[in-house]
Amino acid sequence: MKIIKSILTKNPCYTAGRKITVKGLMLHSVGCSQPSAQIFVRMWNSPSYGAACVHGFIDGNSGTIYQTLPWNHRGWHCGSGRNGSGNNTHIGVEMCEPATIRYTGGSTFTCSNLADARACARRTYNAAVELFAYLCKEYGLNPMKDGVILVNTSRGGLVKTDDLIEGIRARKFFGVGLDVYEEETPNVFEDRSDEILEHSTTARLLSFPNVMITSHQGFFTEEALRAIAETTLQNALDFEAGKETPNIVRA
Questions:
Q1: d(CA 205, CA 181)
Q2: Which stretches of the chain drop beneath a pLDDT of 50?
Q3: pTM value?
Q4: What is the pLDDT, as a whole number, of residue 194?
Q5: Cα separation of 136 and 23, whole Å?
Q6: In sequence order, which residues have a C-beta less than 8 Å from that of residue 69 and are 6 or more positions away?
Q7: How many CB atoms lie within 10 A of CB 52?
Q8: pLDDT of residue 223
Q9: Which of 12, 58, 182, 251 has the most neighbouring CB atoms within 10 Å?
């Protein structure tokens, strides 16, 4: 595992200096076809980039981990709920995505080179597993003690569904929340309430009372929508005024 410290010293999350007691780890993916972690490090290291801040990026080309916040600093990588925000308790890490994919809407995408995309995903995933094992040891976290809660809002392929179902049946999980899952493409944004899903993995998951599935709506929080709107409008104003925006993604 190779970790390069590239702390975002100009980002508002770092300059605020707020610390957290680490209680968990969150793995995200960047949601665009950009494998270079350094692109995001340069873009986010700005006083005006208050929309988000994570603790690290995993480079898609090499698997190198770029640490962008001290692990015990408060980032801004998830929303809030009735019990508060995961930003106050969790380390957030982003996996960069292959250059050979193009999103066509929601979670669907095309891929011009499947072998390269798979290699990129394998590199970032393996690095994430190694990093999270290290962080679990560092902060005394036991991710697979009995009664754990599993939440996946990143990519369905990160969780092997058959193993998950086996763990649910063995009562390993107190609860499971899935915003993404392996079989989501034909189901998301579709009303299939009148259909019988005879051989569907989704149907098997829905049969458990401690499993909650949502339709790829993890971004749909008040904070995230506000940040998206503010950043988009500011980008447009900067462009109209001939200014350089810190949010430009350069190849």
A1: 10
A2: none
A3: 0.68
A4: 75
A5: 9
A6: 7, 8, 13, 14, 53, 54, 55, 56, 75
A7: 20
A8: 72
A9: 58
